[in-house]
Specification:
Length: 371
């Protein structure tokens, strides 16, 4: 098509998009309270235009697709993912909503693997949905040779743990010797302050999951479960590969609905965190920040050690990282060294690790200048 529309949506089109999204995800009893918070927050963060749910009127799948005929596939994929996100926060997910997700996606010419996951959620087949995540999600069928950035060859699965790799452990240990203000030193302190065990040692997180810890430091997010939702929203949207959406779908399924019992090799289900006050705003802002980075970023397949000795501010500038919005900060979005950016369990773990290693315990202190 010669007249493809590539400009950002204006207020009228945003209203149109909201009509289609709401039509796809509204259950028999209307939108849930969380959906009523989430959908406006997403549209405001991603487009800059507010929507009024009271003014939204349903559009059929055919009409919606017709009205978006000038939009390219990438745009339409993102709209289907907005539908998916708004649906995946509901448990139980109505079968009619799962059917409509497929109907609207088909009309828009989009096929997202998470639609099949939503269908299984609606059917109550959560174990089969977990298999779909492993098979069809962003990392499904991943060639382990692609994971050279992890600096280990002891993996049997992409999320596998590595507990006896002295070379890998040594590489992580070297980060503590870097100057304060560098990305690598920030990650070393991030681990020390929380009692986290670095990859290559017993009890460590999977090396692939450890990749996202660099994002906590780079993008300025703490380590509560609410912060984890922000980090994965940021990562999913910073990557132009639409399959990266499954990373956000995974953490929503872990930390909001509990559809998944476990994920990413370490996380366990802990429900209700997206319902926390301000989280809809914080999620939308994290997606906005990811979308505004310059280029496409696969943060899970990045050799972070090549950036370790660079100042954090320089790395942020290189990717065009924008600041958090004032509304997200007011809603409670905090960094790794801000009050509220660490859990009591992590503080206790740091003390226990120091005692076990026979080294002085360095108490964690809020230090906003580091974020």
């Amino acid at each position: 098509m010669d007249d493809i529309l590539l400009t950002p949506p204006d207020a009228d089109e945003v209203h149109l998009l909201a009509c289609g999204v709401c039509a796809a995800v509204t259950g028999e009893d209307g939108l849930t309270p969380l959906q009523q918070l989430l959908i406006p927050a997403l549209f405001l963060s991603m487009t800059g235009h507010p929507i009024e749910l009271d003014a939204v009127r349903p559009l059929s799948a055919e009409e919606f697709a017709h009205r978006l005929a000038r939009r390219n596939r990438v745009f339409r994929e993102r709209i289907v993912q907005t539908m998916l996100l708004a649906a995946l926060v509901v448990r139980p997910l109505p079968a009619a909503v799962a059917d409509r997700l497929r109907e609207y996606a088909d009309a828009l010419g989009v096929d997202d693997d998470m639609i099949a996951v939503a269908r299984k959620y609606a059917d109550g087949a959560v174990d089969l949905a977990a298999v779909d995540f492993a098979r069809n999600g962003y990392l499904g069928g991943l060639d382990l040779s692609r994971l050279d950035a992890l600096h280990t060859h002891d993996l049997d699965t992409s999320w596998g743990q590595v507990s006896d790799d002295p070379a890998l452990a040594g590489r992580w240990a070297e980060l503590a010797g870097l100057p304060v203000g560098t990305l690598g030193r920030g990650v070393a302190d991030f681990y020390r302050d929380r009692g986290f065990v670095t990859p290559g040692k017993p009890g460590s997180a999977p090396p692939l999951l450890a990749q996202h810890d660099w994002v906590h430091v780079l993008a300025g997010y703490g380590t509560t479960l609410e912060n984890e939702i922000e980090v994965f929203a940021f990562m999913a949207r910073a990557n132009d590969d639409p399959r990266a959406f499954s990373l956000l779908a995974m953490v929503i399924s872990l930390f909001e609905t509990g559809y998944l019992r476990a994920g990413a090799g370490l996380f366990e289900a802990n429900e209700g965190h997206l319902r926390s006050t301000g989280m809809a705003t914080r999620l939308g802002d994290a997606m906005r920040r990811g979308a505004l980075t310059q280029g496409s970023h696969d943060f899970l397949d990045l050799d972070w050690f090549t950036l370790a000795d660079r100042p954090i501010t320089v790395v942020r500038n290189d990717i065009g990282l924008v600041a958090k919005s004032g509304t997200a900060v007011a809603a409670g979005s905090v960094g790794p060294w801000q009050a509220g950016g660490i859990t009591p369990y992590q503080l206790n773990s740091a003390r226990s690790v120091a005692d076990s290693d026979g080294v002085p315990y360095i108490p964690w202190q809020p230090d906003p200048s580091r974020d």
